[in-house]
UniProtKB/TrEMBL annotation:
GO cellular component: nucleoplasm
A Pfam family matched in the record: zf-B_box
Protein name per the record: Tripartite motif-containing 33-like
Domain B box-type, chain residue ranges per copy: 36-77, 86-127
Species of origin: Nothobranchius kadleci
Compositionally biased intervals (Low complexity): 310-326
Residue numbers spanned by region Disordered: 304-326
UniProt-listed GO biological process terms: innate immune response; positive regulation of type I interferon-mediated signaling pathway
GO molecular function terms attached to this record: ubiquitin protein ligase activity; zinc ion binding
């Protein structure tokens, strides 16, 4: 019997006899009587955590001598704790035989007899060892998801900050317009209302776009969270099928990562109001909005601008102050 680098084992003809004498699990009430699982009549003095068997002293010696079971973990007393004995699954083809091996070639649980016959020369290992390997694979699969969750968290944080900047910039522009228009005649009032509505419409456009993007990112984040919870649960499980299903679920979602855009919008509104030195007639058309889209960013100044602080006369970080001509 040869071990490969991956921790699995293959059976050859020379080692078949050794596998035939591999210990079987006798879980049907024997443990309650503290009898050895291999020797009928001998009292159990030890417990194998890997085979889930009660063993007498002689069987422990043999257990440590066989290459296949030499590295198993042994307790110096029989185990009556159900936490160390998960439900035993038995082979449908060989009912007396427990399914404690995992065939990597066929990707399912096998018993000793199945491994010697239908799965001869296939790669296999003990089920508990296969669980450990699959849990490591699951952890590796979760790495890009954890990284993407961090990216999504930062993206949401930036977009939330941008919404605050939008609100502050909108307020600044609106107030600036109101200060200028208050010095004008009633002829300019209609123009004021129109410009204010245009500003609101433009900011609403970006606001709705960002909220829509945030909703998509949050939905994706919820999906990641559910997968992570399933993965965490699988990490604590000793059930091979549960872990295997979780690995398949995570692997499937990892394939879709490259198609998911978590970044904020590539452009954002850059809005300012300009005035000019025109006649009274042109003042009726006073005010003009210049709309452009610039790369999305949340600078240190942006963050400081939305922090609570005493009112000041500084201009908006995203807008030029309005100027009027005499």
């Amino acid at each position: 019997m040869e071990r490969e680098e991956s921790g699995t084992t293959t059976v050859n003809d020379k080692e078949m006899t050794s596998l035939v004498h591999m210990e079987t699990i006798e879980e049907r009430g024997d443990l309650l009587n503290q009898q050895c699982s291999n020797c009928d009549g001998n009292l159990a003095r030890h417990w194998c955590l890997d085979c889930y068997e009660a063993l007498c002293g002689d069987c422990v010696t043999a257990h440590r001598r066989v290459t296949l079971t030499r590295s198993h973990r042994l307790l110096n007393q029989p185990c009556n704790d159900d936490r160390f004995r998960p439900p035993i699954k038995f082979c449908k083809l060989h009912p007396p035989e427990p399914l404690r091996l995992f065939c990597f070639t066929c990707n399912h649980l096998t018993c000793r007899d199945c491994q010697l016959l239908a799965h001869k020369n296939h790669r296999f290992s003990f089920a508990n060892e296969a669980v450990d390997g699959l849990r490591k694979k699951l952890d590796a699969c979760m790495q890009p998801i954890r990284a993407q969750m961090e990216v999504s968290r930062k993206s949401l944080q930036d977009m939330e900050m941008r919404l605050k900047v939008l609100a502050r910039s909108e307020l600044h522009l609106t107030n600036s317009l109101q200060e200028v228009f208050r010095s004008l005649s009633e002829l300019l009032k209609a123009r004021l209302e129109r410009l204010t509505r245009e500003i609101q419409t433009i900011y609403d456009l970006e606001r709705e776009m960002i909220k829509g993007r945030m909703l998509k990112v949050k939905e994706l984040q919820e999906g990641h969270r559910s997968v992570r919870e399933a993965a965490d649960k699988a990490q604590n499980s000793r059930d091979l099928l549960v872990v295997l299903r979780c690995v398949e679920q995570v692997t499937s979602q990892v394939k879709d990562l490259k198609d998911q855009d978590l970044s904020p919008p590539s452009n954002m509104v850059y809005l300012k109001v300009t005035t000019d030195r025109q006649t009274v007639e042109s003042m009726i058309r006073f005010g003009k909005l210049l709309l452009s889209w610039v790369p999305f960013c949340v600078s240190k100044e942006f963050k400081e601008s939305v922090e609570p602080h005493p009112a000041s006369s500084t201009s908006s970080p995203t807008s030029q102050p309005l100027t009027s001509s005499s």
